[in-house]
């Protein structure tokens, strides 16, 4: 008969086994499908970005990566789910600047903060574009500035909603140009487009990929894109920053991969590497560029990027007194 181990030794061995279990789980990560939450319905730019990067991540990590669309509250419902998720790397977020960095600044209803996430990496970005209706009577930023400044309060611009990147871009233009225009928030891009093309609204801000078909058809007039430099997608449309008065306008819609706070470093490192490898994939780059996005550099320091972005948005929100 084998002698029994002393109880203290058994307890010690059990304790060591328990301590090594999380490390073992991290070493074998991922061992089951990963869910990427998108805070919007299918079909939008965030959803498209998520689905495109999910395919690449699945190939790199060797497990299925599935999308869960959880729309509502400007992306905040989906973001909240990820903020509340277990920090095991199996529930992630592909989010845009609205839900990651802006919502908390404009509404007290949002309970999560940026510190409730582990930032994994920047995926891509798209410029916005300031447009004029054909009835506004302007063709470029010089004419726009002259007309609006001479008629304070007479003209309006529209965006897809209060506190969106589009809204903040419009307010940045107002601040830099020292202009007085009324903001008209729409429930999405479709009614905004309808009013612009019907000459019921003078100006509007679009995500470039959404506005481009109407610009190309001549139904609206592009005044300028909102990133610091011209978009490679539309090299013929000047950046607003090319006009000295608007040199500090630099706002885009960007997409990032995020996990819950306290994601273990081995898991974070595996996800960071898989994302960096995905960003280098020719197929991924081709698909993203076809949608009007610029793929991020894998060397971007995502934590510093987010600090800079939040500071930028906070300044605009305070200037414009945006609150929802």
Structure description:
By secondary structure, this protein is of the alpha/beta class. It is 44% helix and 19% strand. The protein contains eleven helices and ten strands. The protein has helices spanning 7-27, 45-61, 76-84, 97-106, 141-150, 165-177, 189-197, 208-216, 265-279, 282-290, 302-320; strands at residues 34-38, 65-69, 91-96, 117-133, 156-159, 182-185, 203-207, 220-225, 252-260, 294-295. α4 packs across α11 and α6 crosses α11 (302-320). The termini are far apart. Residues 20-24 have low confidence and may be disordered.
Reconstruct the topology from this structure.
Elements: H1 7-27, E1 34-38, H2 45-61, E2 65-69, H3 76-84, E3 91-96, H4 97-106, E4 117-133, H5 141-150, E5 156-159, H6 165-177, E6 182-185, H7 189-197, E7 203-207, H8 208-216, E8 220-225, E9 252-260, H9 265-279, H10 282-290, E10 294-295, H11 302-320
Parallel strand pairs: 1-2, 1-3, 5-6, 5-7
Antiparallel strand pairs: 3-9, 4-7, 4-8, 4-9, 4-10
Helix pairs in contact: 2-9, 4-11, 6-11
